[in-house]
Amino acid sequence: MSDAQQTDQPAYRRSAGTARGEARRLELLDKVTDDLADNGLTDYSLRRAARAAGTTHKVILYHFDGLEDLLAQALTRLRRRRVDNVLAAAIREHDTLAERIRRVWPVLADDASGLRVIDQAIGLAMYDPERYAHLATDAAAQYLDALLKMCPESWSAARKREVAELILATMRGFLAEWRTTRDAERIEAGMAGLIRALEREEAAE
């Protein structure tokens, strides 16, 4: 990313607290989020964000606390879209957890849903954790919340958390495999193992 060091100051931000300012901020955020989903983080900068939003970098700084604040909010918004799609695909009454997870995978693996930029953000967190670790922890929190909602209501909170963490870690591995090798056969084999494990877990009432 460029422009980061000189644009992380909140000097221009004066729109908070008004309905009109918030509406404008969300409008800009949606456009920047769309650009990130389509083009990823390569060459991401304040000027690119401004072009995508059809405005100037000063207007962006009027509504956001710099480039990294804008990036964090756009990634959160993009993940929310993905999580909403996941829940829409997964949550059906009387389905088992295994059936829900089986339906989730195609949604998560869809490149059109912004998968590339999500992976790039995780890469930033791994490369420079002091600066970008929050991108990974925020992502984990959003997806974990969705997975907890998929677990059987009869389970204890501790059991839901254990299984949701297992699914999250496993699916992240599948996504990394898909992005780097496109080896569908290996992923299908791993998914079959995960589904069997979930079926056994649900049967152990």
From TrEMBL:
It comes from the Bacteria. This is HTH tetR-type domain-containing protein. Residues 45-64 bind DNA. GO terms for molecular function: DNA binding. PROSITE patterns: HTH_TETR_2. Residues 22-82 form the HTH tetR-type domain. Keywords: DNA-binding. InterPro entries: Homeodomain-like_sf, HTH_TetR.
